[in-house]
TrEMBL record:
<dbReference type="InterPro" id="IPR019864">
    <property type="entry name" value="Motility-assoc_ABC_GldA"/>
</dbReference>
<dbReference type="GO" id="GO:0016887">
    <property type="term" value="F:ATP hydrolysis activity"/>
</dbReference>
<dbReference type="GO" id="GO:0005524">
    <property type="term" value="F:ATP binding"/>
</dbReference>
<keyword id="KW-0536">Nodulation</keyword>
<keyword id="KW-0067">ATP-binding</keyword>
<keyword id="KW-0547">Nucleotide-binding</keyword>
<dbReference type="InterPro" id="IPR003439">
    <property type="entry name" value="ABC_transporter-like_ATP-bd"/>
</dbReference>
<keyword id="KW-0813">Transport</keyword>
<dbReference type="Pfam" id="PF00005">
    <property type="entry name" value="ABC_tran"/>
</dbReference>
<dbReference type="InterPro" id="IPR050763">
    <property type="entry name" value="ABC_transporter_ATP-binding"/>
</dbReference>
<comment type="similarity">
    <text>Belongs to the ABC transporter superfamily.</text>
</comment>
<feature type="domain" description="ABC transporter">
    <location>
        <begin position="3"/>
        <end position="228"/>
    </location>
</feature>
<dbReference type="InterPro" id="IPR027417">
    <property type="entry name" value="P-loop_NTPase"/>
</dbReference>
<dbReference type="InterPro" id="IPR003593">
    <property type="entry name" value="AAA+_ATPase"/>
</dbReference>
<protein>
    <submittedName>
        <fullName>Gliding motility-associated ABC transporter ATP-binding subunit GldA</fullName>
    </submittedName>
</protein>
Amino acid sequence: MSIEVNNISKSYGAQKALDAVSFSIQKGEIVGFLGPNGAGKSTLMKILTTYLLADDGSAVVNGHDVTANTKAVQLSIGYLPEHNPLYLDLYIREYLAFNADVYKVDKSRIEEVIQLTGLSPESHKKISQLSKGYRQRVGLANALLHNPDVLILDEPTTGLDPNQLMEIRNVIKNVGKDKTVFLSTHIMQEVEAICDRVIIIDKGKIVADKKLDNLISAHKEQVIEVEFDYKIEEQAIAAIPHLKSFKNIHDCLWELTFLSDKDMRPAVFDFAHDNGLKTLQLNQKNKNLEAVFREITK
Ligand code: ADP
Ligand code: MG
C-alpha cells in the first residue's frame, strides 16, 4: 500500500472537518479526491503530508506512519499545496536550486524536473512573470525534485484556463506513470480525465470510493441523442419505456434520458420504426459524471 488512512478524524474547534475517514491507495494508482468546497480535502492532505496532526486515527504513507515518522513521510511525498506558495521574486532555477538544497538533491535534478514539467520555454523567467499555468508547473517541478514515490496534489488545476488545464493534466498523467498520485479537485471531469479511481468526500465523510468505470455503471443514467426524419409529438416520445426525462433540442432532435442497465439504443430504434419514422442519427452520450457527483453529495 502506498497510502493507508484509518479512521482519521479532525476538528477545528467545534467544527468537524474529518469524521472517521478510511481508505487505502495502492502503489501506482492515480486517485482523484473529489468533494465540494469545505468537504475536508485539504485537511486530509495536510495530515498525510505531516503539516497537521489528526485528532484521532492513523495514516501511513509509503510504509511510514505520519506521526511517528514524519521525516521519512516527507521524503516519500511530493506535495503541491492548495495555493501553491512560491517565492515570486526568484527565477525558476533559483527557486528550484533553493529547494534542491533543502532536500539535499543533486543540482542536476533541476534540469530534469524542468524537462518533465514542460517548463523549458519559460525557464529563464522570474516566477512573478509566469502565467498561473506555468506557476503550477513550477510547483509540480518542486514537488518532483527529490523524486518521491507519492505525489499529493491539492487542486492542481483550479484557476487555470482550459488550455493550461489540459496541459497540466497531461503533465500529471505523464509524471504519474511511475508514481502514486493522490489529487484533489472539485471537478468531476478532471477525475474522468486523469484518474483510475475516485474517492468522494462530503462534509468530512467518505461517501463513495470506486473505480471510475464502476461509479458510472452504478448510476444507471443513460443519455441518448436521437434525430428522426419527422417532427413528432411529445406524448409519443413520453411513451418510450424506461424513459426518465426528455428534451427537444430542436425540431426532430431529441435528448432522451433513461434509467436502465440495458443499452437503450435498440429500443429507440424500434420505437422509430413502429411509429413510421426514420432514425437519422442515434448516439449514446457519455453518462454524466457531474450528475453522479451531485447525486452523491447533495
Ligand atoms: P476542502 O479542501 O475540501 O475545501 P478543507 O479541508 O479546507 O476543505 O476544510 C474543511 C472544513 O474545515 C471547512 O469547513 C473549513 O472551513 C474548515 N477549516 C479548514 N481549515 C480551518 C482552520 N485552519 N480553522 C478553522 N476551520 C478550518
Ligand atoms: Mg481545499
